[in-house]
Design goal:
disordered C terminus, Penicillin-binding protein 2a (Domain 2), alpha+beta, six-stranded mixed beta sheet, 23 helices, 2 domains, Beta-lactamase, 635 residues, elongated
């Protein structure tokens, strides 16, 4: 009995010793591991712990502002009050939003949208309910705060366009980042961040964005911010200084607003500065800043006058008789005519079995180069084009700025069309016909140009240089505005005398009795303009319409009437400004487009004389404006 108890005791003792030894080994290993982690690897794991506890967040920088050539603000940032809701602080989100909708205007669809948003986010993450609160709305929400748990009023920045519709097409607008806009830039993922969607805002978006700041914050395990540890402010975007003169721009918009749809461009013939670029009708870019309503968007895209389209750069039109200036230069260069050579115009020209009419059915009689431009004789150019051929006409047109995009610093510019024999064979699979050359010689048929291209062509006519248009003088740091001097453009390689012959004919159009635009001449001595009328045929009056009594173009429905065009430069002696005007379905170039160009060129010259000594950005005053604006944004 005693032996059995003794054996059991020894067995228990052995097991206890083995178990104790095992435990000792484990505890020793654990202690060694703890020593290694806490002492030897202390710095490494402290860093990792800090990384889990500290979060680095981007701070959106103030967007750069845009000014006109004299420093007038065109696109700025204004303080924007918006309402946020925090789900964890609001026991019943829908109830809170319903009460809020009785205090300020909140659409039912907004309530539904916010409810969905708060469900997708952590309970402590704020969700935007509404932007752009007025002071009165801020006050009303503040008074009712006890009944609005979880509602927060926050201040931010919003893009503002002080000129509203006056510069919509040129400036463009900013809007929220869409899925297709994401490029991996973390700045684009910030809530409420806006990027340029059209116009200058899009072209110079990267320059205007600025450099993001950073905020170092301490967060808990759920990601909630406990406190801010460090903050580094970002840098404002660059200031973009446009070539536009806002006074001239407003005036251009005013003149075009008298018609359903039109476009106009005024530019400097020496440096390519675009001083005014107007497209009518227009829209208010402020509508897009914080999200446009479906109703307004539908009204814009369904408007037959296309208010969203910048017709100055993407509206293409047959240039009509304005194109005769290019044909004349091509003919002089090719040596197929002399300025004194005359052709007889009986009112038509027969080519094979086809008859091509002059706009003056009774004919112009004997016509030389000067009179062909002055009276806009079609038959003269039918005769000349037969000697030239379409390819030589196209080559000159290209040199004058037609057929290709000008390279203006705006997105979505169209290049128009200048056909050649090869173009037709390649694009249409057909051979070029002689009659098509005649039609193209008077700016009809396949030939298409934008108003900006026509203004560029006119600037090149006036200067003899390969002038290219641009909209920005500079884009610089906010406190460093510098003016760009007149650019040096290469010579066109066209003999000065040839240019003078064509300019002289254009002078006859406006300043000689019986010129097609004589009634629209500038009557102020020293400010006179030289120009060329044009009418772009949309379609002929059908036989059925004639039988029903429709005999004149202006009797057709608006969308079938001819376009009215006019190009001009001023002053005649020492030209400085070029202008192109297109009035869609306006009919007569001399009666509709020419008076607009006259008024714009008169205004441009008057504005220059009223600001003596100011030919570019007024550096000191503009800088002061920008510094003041920048301080207001930060305060």
């Amino acid at each position: 009995m005693w032996h059995r108890d003794s054996d059991r005791y020894r067995m228990f003792t052995r097991r206890a010793i083995m178990l104790g030894a095992g435990q000792g080994v484990l505890l020793t290993g654990l202690a060694a591991r703890m020593y290694y982690l806490q002492v030897m690897e202390r710095d490494r794991y402290a860093t990792l712990a800090d990384d889990n506890r500290i979060s680095h967040r981007l701070l959106p920088p103030p967007r750069g502002i845009v000014t006109d050539r004299f420093g007038a603000p065109l696109a700025v940032n204004r303080q924007n009050y918006h309402i946020l809701i925090v789900r964890e602080q609001s026991p019943d989100v829908r109830k809170t939003l319903t009460i809020l909708s009785q205090v300020i205007e909140i659409a039912p669809e907004t309530i539904d949208r916010v409810e969905e948003d708060v469900k997708r986010r952590r309970s402590f993450v704020p969700v935007t309910v509404r932007d752009n609160l007025t002071w009165d709305e801020v006050a009303r929400v503040g008074v009712n705060a006890p009944d609005l748990p979880g509602i927060i009023i926050d201040a931010g920045r919003s893009r503002d366009y002080p000129e509203g519709p006056h510069l919509a097409h040129t400036l463009g607008y900013v809007a929220a980042v869409a899925e297709r806009d994401l490029t991996g830039d973390p700045l684009l993922e910030l809530p409420g961040f806006r990027i340029g969607k059209s116009g200058i805002e899009k072209t110079y978006d990267m320059s205007l964005r600025g450099k993001a700041g950073t905020s170092q914050v301490e967060v808990n395990a759920l990601g909630r911010v406990i406190r801010e540890l460090d903050r580094e402010e970002g840098e404002s975007g660059e200031t973009v200084v446009l070539t536009l003169d806002i006074e001239l721009q407003r005036y251009a918009n005013q003149r075009l607003s008298e018609y359903e749809s039109a476009a106009a461009v005024v530019m400097d013939v020496y440096n390519g500065d675009v001083l005014a670029m107007s497209s009518h009708p227009t829209y208010d870019p402020n509508s897009f800043t914080n999200g446009i309503s479906h109703k307004l968007w539908d009204s814009l895209i369904n408007n037959e006058y296309a208010p969203l389209s910048n017709k100055a750069v993407n509206g293409t039109y047959a240039p009509g008789s304005t194109f005769k200036t290019c044909v004349a230069l091509a003919a002089l260069e090719a040596g197929v005519i002399t300025p004194e050579q005359r052709f007889f115009c009986p009112g038509h020209l027969d080519l094979g079995n086809a008859r091509f009419h002059c706009w003056k059915r009774g004919g112009h009689g004997w016509v030389n180069l000067h009179d062909s431009l002055k009276h806009s004789c079609d038959v003269y150019y039918y005769e000349v084009s037969q000697k030239l051929g379409i390819d030589k006409i196209a080559a000159m047109a290209k040199r004058m700025g037609l057929g290709d995009p000008t390279g203006i610093d705006l997105p979505s510019e169209r290049g128009g069309l200048m056909p050649t024999r090869e173009w037709k064979e390649t694009q249409l699979g057909k051979r070029w016909q002689g009659g098509e050359t005649l039609i193209c010689s008077i700016g009809q048929g396949y030939v298409l140009a934008t108003p900006l291209q026509l203004a560029t062509m006119t600037a090149r006519l006036a200067s003899g240089k390969a002038v290219t248009p641009h909209l920005t003088r500079d884009h610089v740091a906010p406190d460093d505005i510098t003016a760009r001097s007149d650019a040096e453009f290469p010579d066109l390689g066209i003999p000065r005398q040839h240019l003078n012959y064509v300019r002289d004919g254009m002078n006859g159009v406006t300043n000689e009795l019986r010129g097609t635009a004589y009634r629209s001449r500038i009557r102020i001595k020293g400010l006179e303009m030289a120009g060329k009328t044009g009418t772009s045929q949309v379609r002929r009056i059908s036989m059925h319409e004639r039988q029903t009594g429709v005999l004149k173009n202006e009797e057709l429905p608006w969308k079938y009437r001819d376009h009215a065009l006019f190009i001009a430069f001023a002053p005649v002696e020492n030209p400085r400004y070029a202008c192109a005007v297109v009035v869609e379905h306006g009919g007569s170039g001399s009666g509709v487009a020419a008076p607009i160009a006259r008024d714009l060129l008169t205004r441009a010259q008057e504005l220059k004389s009223s600001r003596p000594g100011v030919s570019a950005v007024n550096i000191q005053s503009a800088s002061q404006i920008l510094r003041t604006s920048s301080k207001k944004q930060e305060s």
